[in-house]
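Hey team,

Filing this mostly as a record. A colleague (T.K.) asked me to run one chain through the structure pipeline before their review meeting, and I want the input and output archived in the tracker in case anyone asks later how it was produced. No errors, nothing strange. Just documentation.

Input sequence:
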Amino acid sequence: MPGLLQTEAYVKVIHRRAREVLNGEEIDRIVEVRMTRQEAVTRSASPLKFSAIINEAVLRRPVGGVEVMRAQLQHIAEVAALRSVRVQVLPFRAGVHTAMNGAFALLRFREGGHKPIIYLENLTGALVHRREEDVERYEDAFTDLQSLAPGAEESLGIIKEAIKEWQ
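Output structure:
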């Protein structure tokens, strides 16, 4: 689940489980940073253009119980309705795909002439890849995922069906 789509409750649950060495204060700091970053997507003036492809598994895997999951999926549906956001769901039926080795974020910058970068989060931190060859491989992977996943409307339908399962 991309961080820019996560609710506060969802973030807390995954960080409590994945990083059991963190205390409550450290988790609160992570949550605060993540929620602040999300403002770039929802702000009315010059919102961040954001495309995400989420695995169907994140819609169905229980994280934090029924209330957390229902709120999380409703949040995704709301954010996906924004004009600057495109969310696609990679369904189970797509089978093997280029992102099976792990999630990634491809960041492109509108201003400043900065080249795209790849951002990888993991259990102990995060990595940034800037090498042109690496970025090209991830760009190709993202294009491949986009072609495997249904479009935004059908994907929103999949999300709404999943919401019903968490009633």
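Quick notes for T.K.: The radius of gyration is 16 Å. Residues 17 and 146 are 30 Å apart (CA to CA).
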